[in-house]
Amino acid sequence: MEQQATLDLLYVAAFFLGGLGFAVGPFVIALLLAPRSTRNTQGKTKQLIECGMEPIGDAWIRFGIVYYLYALMFVAFAVDILFLFPVALVYKSQTLIGALDAFIEILLFVGILSLIIIYAWKKGVFKWERKIYSPR
Amino acid sequence: MGTQNIQPAIVQFAQLDKLLALGRANSLWPMTFGLACCAIEMMATGASRFDLARFGAEVFRPSPRQCDVMIVAGTISKKMASAVETLYDQMPEPKWVIAMGNCAISGGPFVFEGQYGIVEGADKLFPVDVFIPGCPPRPEALIEGILELEEKVTGSRRWPRVEVA
């Protein structure tokens, strides 16, 4: 038994090393076999933008914070459902008393998450109207 | 600012280099990059009738960092020249340049006393490996240019040379 466990560990280690070699190996080969520089005319080899144009401004821009509402909706509906799948499994293996316990727990969970919907409701996410954000 | 020196690879094997050259020659990746009417012929070369895929050079890449060959297909205006040079800079070694058409060779019909808008030939900007004459060259001519480049890379020609009857 002890020997079997050691053997299994060895297998895992071998697979780990194999995977590591597979991922890192090409980098090492490329480092050794590739030419170390490239001919250039303007010294723009390291320029990030690859379309030939000069980059305008920075990539670190402010992101529209309005999208947090979409994230909230995603949590309220999609992620919520995601967490209900394990609950279904637990339900199957419960007796009647345990099932009641689980039911109350899931009711608490869904109840707290439902507050998101109330929040979004209050914010007017569900109203279908064009929003105009004026810069004032 | 620019340099035409290549720092060679750390490890070099003559036979392996030959093998790599064979692989490179038979899977040239040109850049998706057209400047003028020659680009139409280049597109025709890539499409089904002339089918550049038969020679392994059909993978037109949208990024210079993935390319082997820059096909300068068309007139290089002075405004475009810096963009073309930047793309050349961004291509990793080994890289080759094909000047396709008379404009890319010498400026073509746009050369006259006192012209101010055209770069007179791609070789004014960077070294060119293969020149394909024509205005514009037919797709067969571009394919021949690619075969010439393959010959330059490997040192031997894979396809029979077409004799003029």
Overview of this protein structure:
The complex is a heterodimer of chains A (136) and B (165). In chain A, helix 2 (68-92) runs antiparallel to helix 3. Helix content of chain A is 62%, strand content 0%. Chain A is built from 3 helices and no strands. Chain B has 165 residues and is mainly α. Chain B has one domain (26-153): Rossmann fold (3-Layer(aba) Sandwich). A 3-stranded parallel sheet of chain B has the order 1-2-3. In chain B, helix 2 (38-46) packs across helix 5. The termini of chain B are far apart. Chains A and B meet through helix 1 of A and helix 3 of B.
Descriptive labels:
heterodimer; A: 136 residues; B: 165 residues; mainly alpha; Rossmann fold; 5 helices
Topology of helices and strands:
The complex is a heterodimer of chains A (136) and B (165).
Chain A: H1 2-33, H2 68-92, H3 96-123
Chain B: H1 14-26, H2 38-46, E1 69-73, H3 78-90, E2 96-100, H4 101-106, E3 130-132, H5 139-154
Parallel strand pairs in B: 1-2, 2-3
The gist of it:
The complex is a heterodimer of chains A (136) and B (165). Chain A is mainly α and 136 residues long.
